[in-house]
Every structure is written in structure tokens, then in C-alpha cells.
């Protein structure tokens, strides 16, 4: 892994920058910060999609926007000191820019999305769906490192299988990997034990488990198991169920996107 693209939404939550800089140092990678979309550009994108701005969004004036972007850039530059780094101001700084620019980079590191003032989900989804690259989301206030103890959330799907390949630079450095599946949340495919055996053939230290969720959702079961096992990272292939279905009914991927207290590495 030799190139990392990162974005923060506000300077008040620089956790994505913190973790991206740590990973850049660990992998001797180039770090590039991308200017976040303005609220004005986001509101036009929402209008084009037939949506209004989010309730309570409080779209900022131009001067406030310039201050927000300047503060985000300063937060990036403080953390990139001593690294091969660059700040990139996208000509198209709308929600689609990261989907195009991100295709060049080995990893994209972003803040956990959610309702404003968090980063909008649409920006994360563009990175996930349009770049073909793994996207690491970082919850607010997270200040640790990732990759020592990894929980790999396996559900038998093509998306999960693809996540193995895209996450291999991180998996290959882990001290331990726990391949976990949740009862009732599998699709036809290999078991978690079979995936663990496959990873072990690469010389990795791997265990597996198949967990009954009880009354919990599959997503909460993954979070609980990761926290109880001392994991510092969850790896997940995203959206085996359709995104629309998950938005309406809930789902494992969306639960992790919005609620995980640990960083999650997603691929699609």
C-alpha cells in the first residue's frame, strides 16, 4: 500500500486524518488530503436528485464555507508533517469528485457518515461504489491504530470474497484475524472456517467462529464480538443486500457504517 487518500468533513472531527497519517507512516505511503464538498454544492446535488437539503442542515454562507475548508486543510497539514503529502482541491468538489479521484489510490480513509454535521452518507457511498478501492471509515474521536487484531465479517458472498483481496495489505500484517459469520445472515457460499483455512495457507494467524445473534441484529452481533475480542478493525464486504433494501429495512452493512465504534474497512 503506497498511496492513501483521505477526507475530513470538519476540523472538529480530524479522526480520519489522524488514522490516515498513522497508516501512511506504517506503510511508507504517500498521503493526499482531498477538499470536502461545500454545503452549497451538496445542496445542488440533492436538488438534482429530487431531494431537499437535510432538515436542520443549516447550509453555510460562502465565508463560513471558506473557513470550514481552510480549517480542514490546516488539520490535514498538521498531521501530514514529515510525510510525502499533498492537499488536493478538486475542480469538481461535489459529492462525485471522490469517486473519480479515488480510483488512483490504494486506500481511502473517511470519517464515519451520518446526519449533519457529520459527513453525508452520499459522499461515502460515492467513494465505495465508484472507486473500486477499499474505504476505511473512522468513528468520531477514534485515536488508535488499526490492523493488529482484525475481525473479518464473513457472510459467504462475492462482496466478502472481494474484501479479502482488497484488504490483504492490512491482513498480511495482522497479529490475529478472526473470521466471523453470523447465524441467519449468510448467503450460499463457503463457511467462515473454510475462509480461515484459506487465509492460514498464506501464513496468517487465523481463527473462525459462527455466532448466534440471539435477539441482536447481525450488525450489532459483529460489533459486540469485535469489541469483546479486542479487535481494532472490522473488515466487511459491503451491501450483499441492496442499498435501498438496507435503507428501508436496515441491514448489517448500514448498521456498521452508522454505528460501529471501531474503524471498518469496506469494499464493494
TrEMBL record:
Q: Where is the UspA domain?
A: 148-265
Signal peptide location: none
At the top level, the lineage of the source is: Bacteria
Pfam families for the chain: Usp
Q: CDD domains, per this entry? A: USP-like
* Gene3D superfamilies found in the cross-reference section: 3.40.50.12370
Q: What is this protein called?
A: Universal stress protein family protein
What organism does the UniProt record list as the source?
Enhydrobacter aerosaccus
